[in-house]
Known about the structure:
The chain is mainly alpha-helical and 154 residues long.
Amino acid sequence: KEREKREKLRIRFPSAMSGEEEENAAELKIGDEFLKAKCLMNCEVSLILEHKYEQLQQVSEDPMNQVSQVFEKSLQYVKRFSRYKNPDAVRQVREILSRHQLTEFELCVLGNLCPETAEEAVAMVPSLKTKGRAHSDEAIEKMLNDLSLVKRFE
C-alpha cells in the first residue's frame, strides 16, 4: 500500500522523487509548460466567466439549469478577488505589466496582488531581482504607480 502511494507520487510529481531540481517559483523554476503557458489574472477570468454566464442566461429560460455549482463558485471567487472590474482597466493593467518584460506568471501575481511598494513586489515575486534581468526599484515603483493610476480612475 505504501509502495503504491509512492509510485503515484512519482508519477504525479517526478522531480520530487527523482533527485531532479525542484520547482521554485521565487526563481522562476516552474517548469517549461508553465513558463510557456498563457496565464490570466483573476480580473481577466472574471470577465470571461461573466460573459459565459450572460450567454447561458440568454440560451436558457432557467439559467441555473445551465450553470454548475463549480462554475458559480469560480465566478464568485474571481469576482471577489479581482482588483479591477472595468474591461478597459483590465486591458490597461496587462499592457502596463507587459511593457516590463515580465513572464506571464510574474505578470499575473503582480496583477492579482497589487503590491504598493517595490519592496512588497519583490517579496511577492523575488524573480524580479534575479541576475540578468533585475528590475531597478525605480522601474518597479513606476510600474506600480501606473497600476495605481488605473485603479484610481477605474
